[in-house]
Design a protein that fits this description.
By secondary structure, the protein is an alpha/beta fold. The chain has a single domain (21-206), classed as Vaccinia Virus protein VP39 (Rossmann fold, 3-Layer(aba) Sandwich), CATH 3.40.50.150. It contains eight helices and seven strands, in the order H-H-H-E-H-E-H-E-H-E-H-E-H-E-E. It has helices spanning 10-14, 23-35, 41-54, 69-78, 92-104, 118-123, 142-152, 170-178; strands at residues 59-63, 84-89, 111-115, 130-135, 153-161, 182-190, 198-206. Strands 3-2-1-4-5-7-6 form a seven-stranded mixed β-sheet, with helices on both faces. The longest helix is centred in the first third of the chain and has 14 residues, at 41-54.
Length: 209
C-alpha cells in the first residue's frame, strides 16, 4: 500500500482555512489584539457555532463572556432551534461591552450576559437546565466549577473547555479524565487567531446514568 506524504508545512497550509467573519467579529478581533483580551478566535468560534448547531442546543451556558465574541458564535449556532446563551462574566466593564456587542449582532434576545462570580451564579441555577456548557474562565477556577457544570448539564449534554493546555488546568484535566461521570476527548491543536494559537481543547459528554 502506497504511503502518502504529509503536507510539508501543515501550520501554514491550515492557516488558509480560517473561516470568514462579518465586520463585527473582525472588529472584536482587532480590539482583542490591541487590548490583549483573550478570545477564542475564528476557528474555535466557528467550531463552537457548529457544535451548538449539530447538538441542537437550546440552552447554552458560557463561563467567561469577555467582549461577547464567543457568545455571538454560540447564539448563531443555536439559532435554528431558537436556542439562547446565558453568559457569566465577573468584570463589569466586560459585561457592558458584551451586552453592547450582543445588541450590535442583533442577538440581545438570545444572549443573556450576567454579572458576577461564575460559581455563585451557577449555584443558583436549576439542575439539568443546559444542553451545552462552554468553559472559558480563569483556569484556576476550572476544577471548582466542574461539579456545577455536571449538575447543570442534562444527561448526554456537551461541555467544551478552552485553554486546557495551561498549567493551571492540570488538576482539572486529571479530575475530568479520571471521572466516571464524563466521556472525554482532549485535543492539542493549532488554533489560528486563538489566545494562544497552540493550545488544548476538551470535549466531554455527561454520562447518562
Amino acid at each position: 500500500m502506497a504511503v502518502s506524504d504529509m503536507i510539508s508545512d501543515p501550520e501554514g497550509y491550515f492557516r488558509n482555512f480560517i473561516p470568514e467573519r462579518d465586520d463585527l467579529l473582525k472588529t472584536l478581533e482587532k480590539e482583542a489584539e490591541a487590548e490583549a483580551i483573550p478570545i477564542v478566535g475564528p476557528v474555535v468560534g466557528e467550531l463552537l457555532s457548529l457544535m451548538a448547531g449539530v447538538s441542537g442546543a437550546r440552552r447554552i451556558l458560557e463561563l467567561g463572556a469577555a467582549t461577547g465574541y464567543s457568545a455571538i458564535y454560540l447564539a448563531r449556532g443555536a439559532a435554528p432551534v431558537g436556542g439562547a446563551v446565558v453568559s457569566l462574566e465577573n468584570d463589569p466593564a466586560m459585561v457592558r461591552r458584551a451586552r453592547q456587542n450582543a445588541e450590535k449582532a442583533g442577538l440581545s434576545d438570545r444572549i443573556d450576559i450576567r454579572e458576577g462570580d461564575a460559581r455563585e451564579n451557577m449555584a443558583a441555577m436549576d439542575a439539568a437546565s443546559f444542553d451545552l456548557v462552554f468553559m472559558d474562565i480563569d483556569k484556576e477556577f476550572y476544577l471548582p466549577a466542574l461539579p456545577h457544570c455536571r449538575r447543570l448539564l442534562r444527561p448526554g449534554g456537551l461541555m467544551i473547555v478552552d485553554n486546557v493546555g495551561f498549567a493551571d488546568a492540570v488538576d482539572f484535566n486529571k479530575a475530568l479524565w479520571e471521572s466516571d461521570n464524563w466521556r472525554v476527548v482532549n485535543l492539542l491543536t493549532l488554533l489560528p487567531g486563538h489566545s494562544p494559537e497552540r493550545d488544548g481543547l476538551t470535549f466531554a459528554v455527561k454520562a447518562s446514568r
